[in-house]
């Protein structure tokens, strides 16, 4: 099975040295890559910057911005059997990036942002045979919002968790597919979560 996994938090540059990002560590995506390798899959990892050591995957594609991640996903989607979008892709990016470092001034600085490309929506509209797994990080109405994302973006599986999971060694996750009800797994490690997700998607693809 050929699988593509995205990981890490994208960087959206304001100028050559400053950027906006999020608190994603990339731990979940890298744990998924390890689980997929152990499951004898052919693994492509598309990774935004992290402090984690590069894993032993078949192909490693480093990216920084949401736009770069979008293009990497586009280039790898057609040839894969499964895509897991574990990366925390920025929802907004600066409307205009300065080519030179912005100087500090004693006045307010207003930064205009524009929406980034919705990679999951694009994937949901353009997938053919691929099994698509998305993640939903929600601070309220967790299962309701996650299920809406599952349906609206035409995913096959959704993994939902709360902001407490960010950078945590242990957390709870909820998993739902189109065919099955929610499954909850309490206080498990990132690697345990990854192993469960890979096992479930293998089973679901096998019985599809």
Explained architecture:
The protein is α/β, with parallel strands linked by helices and 208 residues long. The chain has a single domain (2-95, 114-206), classed as CoaB-like (Rossmann fold). The chain contains five helices and twelve strands. The strands form three sheets. It has an eight-stranded mixed sheet with strand order 5-4-1-6-9-10-11-12, sandwiched between helices. Helix 1 (27-38) packs across helix 5. The protein is globular.
Describe how the helices and strands are arranged.
Elements: E1 2-7, E2 12-13, E3 19-20, H1 27-38, E4 42-47, E5 59-62, H2 66-77, E6 82-85, E7 92-94, E8 113-115, H3 119-126, E9 131-137, H4 142-152, E10 157-161, E11 170-177, E12 183-189, H5 190-206
Parallel strand pairs: 1-4, 1-6, 4-5, 6-9, 9-10
Antiparallel strand pairs: 2-3, 7-8, 10-11, 11-12
Helix pairs in contact: 1-5
Task: Name a few traits of the molecule.
single chain, 208 residues, alpha/beta, Rossmann fold, eight-stranded mixed β-sheet, two-stranded antiparallel ribbon
Distance between the termini: 14 Å
Report strand order across the widest sheet: 5-4-1-6-9-10-11-12
Q: Helix proportion of residues, in percent?
A: 25-40%
CATH-level-4 superfamily name: CoaB-like
CATH class: Alpha Beta
Helical segment tally?
5
Estimated share of beta-strand residues: 25-35%
Just name the CATH architecture. Answer: 3-Layer(aba) Sandwich
Residue-averaged pLDDT:
94
Instruction: Evaluate the radius of gyration.
Output: 17 Å
**What structural category characterises the helix and strand content?**
alpha/beta
CATH names the topology as: Rossmann fold
H/E series: EEEHEEHEEEHEHEEEH
């Amino acid at each position: 099975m050929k699988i593509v996994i995205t990981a890490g938090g994208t960087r959206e540059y304001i100028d050559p040295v400053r950027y906006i990002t999020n608190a994603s560590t990339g731990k979940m995506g890298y744990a998924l890559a390890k689980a997929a390798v152990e499951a004898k899959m052919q693994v492509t990892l598309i990774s935004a910057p992290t402090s984690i050591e590069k894993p032993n995957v078949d192909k490693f594609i480093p990216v920084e911005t949401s736009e770069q991640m979008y293009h990497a996903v586009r280039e790898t989607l057609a040839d894969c059997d499964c895509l897991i979008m574990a990366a925390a892709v920025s929802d907004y990016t600066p409307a205009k990036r300065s080519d030179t470092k912005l100087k500090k001034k004693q006045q307010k600085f207003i930064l205009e942002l524009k929406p980034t490309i919705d990679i999951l929506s694009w994937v949901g509209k353009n997938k053919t045979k691929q099994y698509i797994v998305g993640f939903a990080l929600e601070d309220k109405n967790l299962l309701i919002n996650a299920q809406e994302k599952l349906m609206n973006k035409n995913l096959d599986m959704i993994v939902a968790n709360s902001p407490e999971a960010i950078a945590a060694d242990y957390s709870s996750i909820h998993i739902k597919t189109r065919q099955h009800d929610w499954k909850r797994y309490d206080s498990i490690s990132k690697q345990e979560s990854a192993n469960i997700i890979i096992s479930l998607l293998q089973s679901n693809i096998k019985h599809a």
